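Human: Respectfully, please carefully check these tokens:
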Amino acid sequence: MEKKIISTNNAPAAIGPYSQAVCIDKFVYTSGQIPLDPETGEIAPDIKSQTEQVMKNVKAVLEAAGTDLKHVIKTLIFIKNMGDFSTVNEIYGSYFTEAPPARSCVEAARLPKDVLIEIEAVAVK
């Protein structure tokens, strides 16, 4: 079993002792992606914009690993306010229009950099 570390400039750099993603055999495990714009370092103020950025970041990490959103088998969404679920669900769903992955969604009291959302994914290559 070979472990390969994935890193891309198209998603935010790790802000701690972790990798953006790790590949083991045919599986890709992403770290939680927050809505940090990798070019500007800025974070949008609203849940809609933050969800869009998180999905772009997840997509970029998966592409760096040699896969894509169509091959995601499981996601875990952390949101600061469950009241934002319908907005998050609508945007998230636009990225997974066919055969969506298994998913969990939990409300978290506080996320890194006080963002409103974080998403991690598991995909196959």
Remarks:
- The CA atoms of residues 10 and 24 lie 21 Å apart.
- The domain at 3-124 is CATH 3.30.1330.40 (60s Ribosomal Protein L30; Chain: A;).
- The chain has a mean pLDDT of 97.
